[in-house]
Amino acid sequence: MALHTRDGGLVIPNAWDGLSALMLADAGFEAIATSSAALAATLGRLDGRHEVTLEEHLEHARLLGRLTGLPVNGDFEDGYGDTPEDVAATVEAAVESGLAGIGVEDTSGNPDQPIRGFDEAVNRIRSAVAAAKGRIVVTGRTDNFIQGRPDLEDTIRRLTAFADVGADVLYAPYPPDLDALVAIVTAVAPTPVNVLVSPSDKVLTVAELQKAGVKRISLGPLLYTQAMGALEQATKALVAGDLASATTGMSFDRVSELLARGTK
Predict the structure, then answer these.
(1) Residues 199-208 pLDDT 10s
(2) Residue (of 109, 112, 125) closest to 51 by Cα position
(3) Helix (H) or strand (E) holding 193
(4) Residue 205: helix, strand or coil by DSSP?
(5) C-alpha to C-alpha distance for 63 and 1, rounded to whole angstroms
(6) Beta-bridge partners for 171
(7) Which residues contact 173 (CB under 8 A, 6 or more apart)?
(8) What is the C-alpha to C-alpha distance for residues 102 and 91, in angstroms, rounded to an integer?
(9) Per-residue model confidence (pLDDT) at position 109
């Protein structure tokens, strides 16, 4: 939690495999996170309700931590379970796997009602906090904005309730604008708030987000999609017969150097 409460907070980038984790560690980041969407994509699956199993995600997180020695925050969807007891079991498994943090969403996996009811959502966070016993940072997350429910009042109500039952960090991906973000930060203070890149209307700088009171900035699958964008451009060059453009990138010597660090 110290990284969240210090001046400026932290940027916590999301890795998707061993090499990306080592690159982020080499760049000097003090903690990293998983991304359920990026992990699912690496396995050829769509992000969604438990498309990646709990054990697959735990093993992935253990790999990132083992290679880098950094604290790892797990993007664990809805806590891998329908009941508060299931969420508690997931938190315990995350603790046993050495994770430093875990996120629990209020999503349901039901396309007709994608967000769980208020009381159910709060009870699940309460159960996560009780299971954590201070051993792991619990992030309470509401997905209102990315599930077609642009209700700022309900979002603040949920986040405030998550804080009241002990969530260490609060998170509502993609509030509509900076004013909404500031309203969230102000309403739940002093509990730290995580932001996924920026509000949905404009990508801000780290300094601008820090000025707004944000304490943690994550990137979700966006570093992964950035890398895949570079691969797509290389593929187009290859199709056009341009071998030089298709093969310009990190040298394999550099890859080997990073991987060697992860085996020590």
Answers:
(1) 999 999 999 9
(2) 109
(3) strand 193-196
(4) coil
(5) 22
(6) 141, 194
(7) 141, 143, 145, 146, 196, 220
(8) 7
(9) 82
Compute mean pLDDT per 10 residues along the chain, 264 residues long, and list them: 92 98 98 97 88 95 97 95 95 98 93 93 98 98 95 98 98 98 98 97 97 98 98 97 95 95 73
Apex CA 159: angle with CA 83 and CA 117, to 5°? 40
Query: What pLDDT was estimated at residue 99?
Result: 98
DSSP 84-106: HHHHHHHHHHHHHTT-SEEEEE-
For residue 74, which amino acid is it? Answer: G
Helix 18-26 and helix 54-68: axis angle, to 10°? Answer: 40
Q: Whole-angstrom Cα distance, residue 159 to residue 247? A: 47
- Kindly report the number of other CB atoms within 10 A of residue 8's CB atom: 12
Distance from C-alpha of 108 to C-alpha of 201, rounded to nearest angstrom: 26
Query: With helix as H, strand as E and coil as C, how does 101-118 read?
Result: EEEEECECCCCCCCECCH
- The owner of tokens 């940072």 is 137
pTM surpassing 0.90?
yes
**DSSP single-letter state for residue 145:** G
**What are the tens digits of pLDDT across the range 165-216?**
999 999 999 999 999 999 999 999 999 999 999 999 999 999 999 999 999 9
φ/ψ region of 223 (left if φ > 0, alpha if ψ in -120 to 50, else beta) reads: alpha
Amino acid at position 95, single letter: V
